[in-house]
Structure formats: structure tokens, C-alpha cells
Amino acid sequence: MPLIPKAYGPSASRVGLIPNLLGLGLFWGLSPVMTKALAQVGVTPLQTITYSSLAVGVVLFAIWRAFGPVRLWDARLWLFGLGCAIMLNLPFGLSLMVVGHVPVSTFSIVTSTTPLFGYLLALIVGMEKPNRLRILAIIAGFLGAALLIIDAEMIDHGIVIDPWLAAAFGLPFFYALYHLFAAKFWPKDRETSAVGIAESLAAGLAFLPLLLVSQGRDSADLTINGFYLLAAVSVLWVVERIAFFNLVRHFGPVSTVQAVNLATVSTVIMGAMIYGEEIDARIIVSAALVIIALWLNAKAERQRQLA
């Protein structure tokens, strides 16, 4: 069992698995809806990554600084933060492009395969052991997510995978790598607060030169709607960072990526609320399967704690 670093502020206590999964899943569910809106109002992927990362880093520092000192002067911390920033934002940047070309429900089901990649990769590198409940949780969650895009008419006419959809299937693999990297190479005895701040600021500073070179004087060109949407995404990202790091450190990468299953359901529900899409029996059954998956995963985690 890896050492759990000291933490201050919102992550100082070991918040329960279910509340963290709910918070992270709802954020990830809302994210495709909002990032699609960002693309529609002309905010580029590099603008989204750079400005939201810098904003999140500054806000996280202000929040945790209010609870006590935050140790940031450590080369290993910033190297880890830079690694996380690259491994997270490369697939995130791809997702910002993909989500503008595929339906939100299709995008969600593709990313919901992340737990499958994550569990297999964790088994390969020896970070996880075979566990019947975790396997059942992943299967139930994936089936619940899969129900959302099963359509009789699509089956009758065949499913054609376009280049954008093919590119989308690279997302779960790279996200799973990111989750495993964060869990395996966490700097020894470093607080969750410091890691969250370093990752966010490292992402903003790493992608800022790319933004300036590629967009030049248009780097800061944002519409009013784009500015407000970007600010809203940044606020959500603060909540996501707190929940994500708490989950990775205290419950492991496999438990963390289970939030993807909940995100798939919440994406479709919010899509229905925003775009007026109909909620049918598939969504109800899907939600039930995801709840079962969360329960199985939580039960497996409890058993591991008692072992």
C-alpha cells in the first residue's frame, strides 16, 4: 500500500468514495457539453487548455494557502506536474477537437471504456490484482453506458466509423495511462494541494508558448460568451482537481476511472436538458446499471481496506 501524503484544506480528510465519484462523474459528464459550447463560440483547444489551467492553478493555490503553507519549491514536484500536465492535456486537446465532430452520446460511450483500459494496464504493471467485484463493476458500468447509444436503426443500417470517431478511441487509452502515471509516480510525501497546483500551472506554462506561436495576436481574442464559458469551465475544473487527486491517492486509479461510467449517464441527461433530447427507457436502465457498478466498486474498496 503506497504512503498517503499529508494534505491541507479540501483534501485533508479522506472523503468517501461515493461522494468523490459523484462529483467527478458529474463534472466529466458536464465537460463535453461545455467544451462543445466553447468550440461553437470560437474558443480554440489551446486557449481552453492554457487559460483554464493557469486559472485553476491560481485558484487552487489561493484555496489551499488559506488553510496553511503549500510547499512548491521542489524540482521533482514540478517534473511530476509537467508529466501529468502533458499526459492529461494531449488527450484532452484531442477531445476538444473530437467533441465538435461526433455526437455527445457517442463521445461519452467511447470515453467510458477508460476503466477497461485502466484495469488491464494496472494488471500488466502489477498495480492491481484480479478482483471479481471490480471486474463486475467495470462490466456493469460499461453495459450501462453502452445502452445509451444502442439504436435499432443504426444496427439495421450498419455502423460506419468516421475518422473523428476512430481518433476518439485513442482517448480512453491515454486517459488510463494518465491515471496510472499519477498513482504510480506520485512524489513521495507530497501534499495533494501542491501536486494539484503544480500540475495546473505546469500545463498552462507549457502550452502558453504553443498558443502564442500558433495564434499570435489572436491568442487573447475571446468573445464575451467565450470568456464566461471559459471561466465556468475553470471553476468546474477546480472541483474536479480536488476530487480527482483525492480519489487517485486514497482509492487507486481503477476506482477513479469508474467515474467515467457515471459521466456517460449524466452527459446524456444534461444533453436532454440543454438540447431537448428525449429521455427513454434506455437511459433509466443505464442509470440503474451505473448505480450497481458504483456499489460493486465501493464494496470492493471496502474489502481491500479490511484485508
Judging from the principal axes of the Cα atoms, what is the shape?
globular
**Helix and strand succession?**
HHHHHHHHHHHHHH
What would you call the structural class? mainly alpha
Largest sheet: none
Could you report the average pLDDT, rounded to the nearest whole number? 80
The total domain count is: 1
**Using DSSP, what is the number of strands?**
0
Radius of gyration: 19 Å
Q: Which range does the strand content fall in?
A: under 5%
Counted by DSSP, the helix tally is 14
The low-confidence runs, each spanning 5 or more residues with pLDDT under 50, are 1-14
Termini separation: 11 Å
Residue share in helix: over 70%
Key features?
about 300 residues, 14 helices
Characterize the structure shown.
The protein has one domain (14-306). The protein has 14 helices and no strands. 75% of the residues lie in helices and 0% in strands. The protein has 307 residues and is an all-alpha fold.
